[in-house]
Amino acid sequence: MRRSLLDLNGTFCFGALKLGAVDPVSFSDGVVTIRPLSVNDIDADLAAKDDEQIDWLWETGQRATWEAMAPREQRAHALRVLRYAQESFGPGPKWSFAVDTRDVNYVAYVDCDLANDHVPLGQANISFSAHPSFRGRGYVSRAVRLVLRFLDEHTRATEAHIIVDAQNGASLRVAHAVGASAVEEWVNEHGRTMIRHIVPLSSENSSPLAAADGDQ
Known about the structure:
- The protein has helices at 42-47, 51-57, 62-67, 71-87, 139-154, 169-177, and strands at residues 12-14, 17-19, 27-28, 32-36, 94-101, 108-113, 124-130, 159-165, 181-187, 193-200, 210-211.
- It is an alpha+beta fold and 216 residues long.
- A hairpin with a 5-residue loop joins strand 9 and strand 10 (193-200).
- It starts with 11 loop residues before the first strand and ends in a 5-residue tail after the last strand.
């Protein structure tokens, strides 16, 4: 069950600390830009759902549910997910981003979640997936660095957790590339060895990243 961070006024609370809604925002490092997901991303979203994404990013049982749907049902389901991500971006506690390059929209996905069951309440869990045609190009590592900046600027989280299956070499390389330290290893309920990586968050130590605007 997902943990709730809402008080009676609909504001997210971490003890005495509160976060208001986050306006739609994008960040760029000059090579990639992260921006809120949109229903306009539907075609790229559907094309990205291959075996590798399903194996590493989806929960157990979701593959069977997805494969049981007719193509029209899959599209409708994916649209609902995108619409929810788009409409819930401000309140959080989960923010989902499309990763764009200068030439192609939505080459990868990245999110940060302050109410994930696998991390301490109020800290951030980061998940990510490169789309099939754009793997191995470093786009996800760049996007994760931008998400770390987003967390610094818009949340009270002090840690970002990246939890990776020990067999997922590509995601382990991303964790290493963004400077995350492996701090814990365990076997989950499905018999998979998982490795927790942590990146400390501090706006004072963040490298400057340009917020994307119309000129970028």
